[in-house]
Design a protein that fits this description.
53% helix; mainly alpha; 5% strand; 16 helices
């Protein structure tokens, strides 16, 4: 899009997002949803009324818009109304929708072992091992640099949320003392083992390099996980986030304190981490009923 093709209103929205350092994906989503609202109105979005906002949300519901899409639209419009238009009356009309939280798909330790064993080469095995061993998100795994690995202290420094709103960004450290030998051998000398295979140059900063100096994409990582799951004969719907769910659940089953798991996952709220207590089967099985204590009491 050329400079002349951008309207003053859109330019102001882009500037407001840039000031707050919203990620490229977030900016794209916000612009798309604001444009959709304007298309619904048939005129510029700054001419909207509270009744227009109400009608738009009714329309989204009538066409069967999914809850996540409705909520992204609500977030985008609130940002636009409050910060770009300074119209708090419009922002107050925007409603988000609560969606029942689904239990995450979790692999058993045996299924994880089969998945890792199904990786075709050392790079794929290292990617899958790291995703499970640390519980990192796909974007965090693929964007790791060699300098993020502290092999002496056995920790990884994670730069969170380059595509997240600024309030959710930051850095955290996650332990890797449970990383597998394949991954440790890969990281031991800055990917030296991989260089021998010819897919990593000596000056490459990325732990998992891709094409044209970029790191492996999150999409490619998802593809690697799905192919490994298929070869392992796992019928569950498996993605990179499945390994993150499995990481948290298995730690909980090993009686790791839930607040430690919260820190490792980078969750802001403990309630988010507490979801895994509903799928930690072995941990639930070890809970003793208060009736058992009552029956053991004298008399």
């Amino acid at each position: 899009m050329t400079e002349k093709a951008i309207s003053p209103l859109r330019r102001r929205l882009i500037e407001d997002m840039a000031i707050r350092r919203l990620g490229p994906k977030t900016q794209h989503q916000y612009i798309r949803h604001v444009k959709r609202f304007a298309d619904f109105l048939g005129r510029s979005a700054d001419k909207a009324t509270p009744e227009d906002v109400h009608r738009y949300q009714l329309w989204l519901a009538s066409i069967g818009t999914t809850v996540p899409t409705v909520n992204v639209s609500a977030t985008a419009l609130r940002f636009f109304f409050r910060l770009t238009l300074k119209r708090h009356d419009l922002a107050e009309e925007v409603v988000s929708t609560r969606e029942p939280r689904r239990l995450p798909v979790v692999l058993s330790p045996e299924e994880v072992a089969r998945l890792l064993a199904s990786a075709r080469n050392i790079k794929h095995k290292a990617l899958l091992s790291l995703a499970y061993a640390t519980g990192l998100r796909s974007s965090e795994v693929v964007s790791l640099r060699l300098t993020d690995i502290d092999s002496d202290r056995m920790v990884i420094r994670v730069e969170q949320g380059k595509s997240l709103p600024s309030r959710k960004r930051g850095a955290r450290r996650t332990g890797m003392s449970f990383s597998r030998p394949t991954f440790l051998s890969y990281c031991a000398n800055g990917g030296g083992l991989a260089r021998k295979k010819g897919w990593m140059s000596a000056g490459q900063p990325w732990l998992f390099p891709g094409y044209r100096g970029q790191h492996t994409s999150a999409r490619q990582l998802h593809r690697i996980v799905r192919l490994a799951a298929a070869r392992a004969g796992i019928a569950k719907r498996v993605g990179v986030h499945t390994l993150r769910h499995s990481f948290a659940t298995h730690l909980l089953e090993q009686k790791t304190d839930i607040r430690i798991i919260q820190v490792l996952l980078g969750h802001k709220k403990l309630d988010t981490t507490a979801l895994y207590t509903r799928v930690a089967i072995s941990a639930l099985g070890q809970v003793t009923s208060p009736l058992d204590f009552l029956l053991k009491m004298p008399g």
